[in-house]
Design goal:
187 residues, alpha/beta, 5 helices, 6 strands, 11% strand
């Protein structure tokens, strides 16, 4: 990476030709060690900031970032964090003058022959009925963890709140236990 500090070359450059002894080079390396440790921490910081700068709220990127950030807290390293979208209850009911999502009207009793199941007409519903069925926009499903749930939920909800779309709501499931984000957990 371009931020790497060449400590060995620097020690060699700082050594004058008339003091080129083993002890002097070891002394210079011991003086450069704090600078080298600080450089390693900065490289990790720069790498994380580079990833954060490329992040979007797309599900694929968000899943990858959550797994990248929280894989050290999972009980089984083979398990993955995934995002499950809530399904639609049916077709929205619109008023005649309302602008919004396009929809298809089917004549009552009309035979619909489509090879794709998604093209079949769906049941109409009111928006309040969907809110009763789907309480959240998506669910973050997490396998077993080996740290305290409250601490993990706060860390996870901070990342999800930062990268989710505005207006979307979510729920966190840890081992099929549903937890509201940023609330106290009863144990």
């Amino acid at each position: 990476m371009r931020y790497k500090l060449p400590a060995d070359r620097m020690a060699n450059r700082l050594t004058p030709h008339f003091l080129a002894g083993r002890r002097y080079i070891l002394f210079l390396q011991s003086l450069l060690y704090p600078l080298q440790a600080l450089n390693e921490r900065f490289i990790l910081f720069a790498r994380e900031k580079h990833i954060e700068a490329r992040m979007t709220s797309q599900t694929v990127y968000l899943e990858w970032y959550l797994n990248h950030k929280f894989k050290k807290y999972l009980a089984d390293p083979e398990d993955r964090i995934y995002i499950k979208e809530s399904g639609t209850a049916g077709v929205d009911i619109y008023h005649e003058g309302a602008g919004g999502k396009p929809y298809t009207l089917w004549k009552e009793g009309e035979a619909v022959n489509t090879p794709d199941e998604r093209e079949n007409p769906r049941e109409f519903y009111y928006l309040s009925e969907e809110k009763a069925v789907n309480k959240v926009s998506f669910t973050v499903c997490v396998p077993g963890i080996h740290i305290e749930e409250r601490e993990f939920v706060y860390m996870l909800s901070y990342i999800v709140n930062r990268y989710k779309l505005a207006g979307k709501t979510y729920l966190i499931k840890i081992d099929s236990k549903e937890i509201e984000p940023n609330t106290k957990i009863t144990t």
